[in-house]
Amino acid sequence: MAKLLTECMKTPQVKPQDVERRWFLVDADGLVLGRVAAAVAQILRGKHKAAFTPSVDCGDGVIIVNAEKIRLTGKKAEQKTYFRHSGYIGGGKLIPFGRMIEKRPEWVVKRAVRGMLPKNTLGRQMVKKLRVYAGPEHPHRGLATEPLSINA
Question: How much is the pTM?
Fold first, then answer.
């Protein structure tokens, strides 16, 4: 009896060649950075699909536009800093969020999403399906994208 139940209730294991990919479009205008990053990381990982397999990249692609209009809650806009190191002794730099969002808003969003993905080869493969653009225009107009709504 127990063997009969295990045979009919197997967990589906997706193979890389069987994955069907879709593309989602996110407008980040006025949305909170962490919430956008968490939702996008789930889509890139494939956790929104019923046949999620942790060892296979079964996620979809995401295009984020208006990265320059993303916001932080509370006092984080004044307090958040990014650390960079040149590799030399004393070569560490702290860059405030305000200056970073002015110079490279795409990098800020991409880094937040990358931090929520696995830290291995699979995670590096997943982040390649992420496209981030500072303004409302993106070069993927011909691609069939579905709008993704994220609750602010």
Answer: 0.88
Q: Which of 145, 136, 149, 128 is nearest to 105 (CA)?
A: 136
Compute the distance between CA of residue 98 and CA of residue 77 in angstroms, rounded to an integer: 6
How far apart (Å, rounded) are the C-alpha atoms in residues 80 and 33? 12
DSSP 64: E
For residues 109 and 70, the answer to whether their CB atoms sit within 8 Å is yes
For residue range 28-70, list pLDDT tens digits in order: 999 999 999 999 999 999 999 988 899 999 999 999 999 999 9
* CATH fold for the domain made of 21-72+102-140: Ribosomal Protein L13p; Chain: A; (3.90.1180)
CA nearest to 37, candidates 104, 107, 116, 101: 116
